[in-house]
Structure formats: structure tokens, C-alpha cells
Write a structure and sequence with these properties.
alpha/beta; 12 strands; two-stranded antiparallel sheet; single chain; 29% helix; binds cytidine-5'-monophosphate
């Protein structure tokens, strides 16, 4: 029985405005994908690592990851990209950690802690942080409709860890379903699975806007 990681990196990263896929954007002298992949290579709990790349950039990503990391082309949605990763897993893999390449500051410690937390009765586990901002529901013009009570509201990170069987089941189901899930836990929840959140890492934030890149660069280059 072994554990695999699927690092999804096939998004365009348009909000970052870098003009190339986000995974190839440099962070302190290294493309983001190199940082994320290295964290999984250094993790004691992961045996197989698959990076899912934008189809036109498969070779480019391959050049930037350690030799043991496989790189496969992704799909038009995050879900299809995860499916492409699932199709690449070896026969012994029983547990899968899905990670967004947009979180390059993930650590081996966080990966190991999340994988270790997947045990009965949980079907999936992910790191998360309590929301610190006040939350408002708005209409499409930004007019506030109501304030959402943030008590007990957590923002979810990746890696999201579940059994391979559960993940394959939910992805097969959504292939014929409507709507796009922004993460894998929501698919497991929709299928009635029991999901546990554990304490995340504030440094494992998602690089989305240009300022995130500035902050992450400071973090990796500060002495
Ligand atoms: O767009 P968003 O930031 O939510 O994307 C989350 C992750 O899913 C990113 O790491 C992105 O590269 C990945 N993704 C993908 N295939 C797509 C769309 C997004 O692998 N078609």
C-alpha cells in the first residue's frame, strides 16, 4: 500500500497576469512547480508524484521537477486535471494527496501531518485555517445582502488527502455531473463522505494575485 501526490498545475493563472502558466512563474529563483514538487519529494509519506501540466507546457514543467516526478497533460477543468493524475497512478497506490501547484510554500511537515490524519472514520482530510475577515454575501453589484457568521468557518488549503477508491468514485460521478468543484473535499462531501480539517499553515497560502507573489518571494528569500 502506498501514497501518491497529484500536483495540479494545468491552470492558466490569468489573475497573476504573468503571461505564462502560474506553475512556471519564478519565486525566489525557482519556478513555483519546482518548489511544490520538491516538498513532496522530501516528504516521508509519499511514494509517487504526478504533476499535471498545461498540455503545451508538459516538457517545460518536466525540466523543472526532480527526475522521479512524472508530468502528464491536464484537462480543461481542475476536475479533469485531477482525473488525468488519477489515471497515471501505479497499482499499489491506495491513498492520494491532491495539491494545488498554486501553493508552492507547502512543507514536507504539513504533507506528512495531513497524510497521517487520514484514518477511520475519515474519508478525506485537509489543512485549513479559521477565517479572520468578516464575511459578507453580496449581489453582482457588490451590494451587501447580509453578513455571514464566521464562527466555525475555515478556509481550506491543500494537500487534500483521501483514499484512492473514494477519489476515483467521486471523480467518475462528477464527470457526468454539472458544475465545477474548486476542490476535492467538496466532491467527497457531496458523495456523503466524512471530512476532517486539521490546522493548516498560514505560509501555505495560494498565489493568486501579484501581491501574493511579492509576499511569497519575501518569505523564501528572507534570511
Ligand atoms: O484556478 P484555481 O487557482 O482555483 O486553480 C487551482 C489549481 O488547479 C491550480 O493549481 C491550477 O493549476 C489547477 N488547475 C488545473 N487544471 C485546470 C484548472 C486549474 O490543474 N484546468
Amino acid at each position: 500500500m502506498s501514497t501518491a501526490a497529484i500536483i495540479v498545475a494545468a491552470g492558466a493563472g490569468e489573475r497573476l497576469g504573468a503571461g505564462l502558466p502560474k506553475a512556471l512563474v519564478h519565486l525566489g529563483g525557482q519556478p513555483m512547480i519546482a518548489r511544490a514538487a520538491s516538498a513532496f519529494v522530501a516528504s516521508a509519506s509519499v511514494e509517487q508524484i504526478v504533476v499535471v501540466a498545461p498540455p503545451k507546457f508538459t516538457d517545460a514543467l518536466h525540466e523543472h521537477v526532480p527526475a522521479e516526478v512524472q508530468v502528464v497533460p491536464g484537462g480543461a477543468t481542475r476536475q479533469l486535471s485531477v482525473t488525468a493524475g488519477l489515471d497515471t497512478l501505479g497499482p499499489d497506490v491506495r491513498v492520494v494527496a491532491v495539491h494545488d501547484a498554486a501553493r508552492p510554500l507547502v512543507t514536507p511537515e504539513l504533507i506528512d501531518r495531513t497524510v497521517a490524519a487520514l484514518r477511520p472514520p475519515w474519508d478525506a482530510v485537509a489543512p485549513a485555517l479559521a477565517v479572520v475577515d468578516t464575511l459578507k454575501a453580496v449581489d453582482n453589484r457588490g451590494v451587501v445582502l447580509r453578513t455571514i457568521d464566521r464562527t466555525g468557518v475555515w478556509a481550506v488549503q491543500t494537500p487534500q488527502v483521501s483514499s484512492r477508491a473514494a477519489l476515483e468514485r467521486v471523480h467518475a460521478r462528477v464527470a457526468s455531473d454539472i458544475g465545477a468543484a474548486t476542490d476535492d473535499l467538496s466532491l467527497v462531501e457531496r458523495a456523503g463522505g466524512r471530512v476532517l480539517l486539521i490546522e493548516g499553515d498560514p505560509a501555505n497560502f495560494k498565489i493568486t494575485h501579484p501581491v501574493d507573489l511579492v509576499l511569497a518571494t519575501r518569505l523564501v528569500t528572507s534570511p
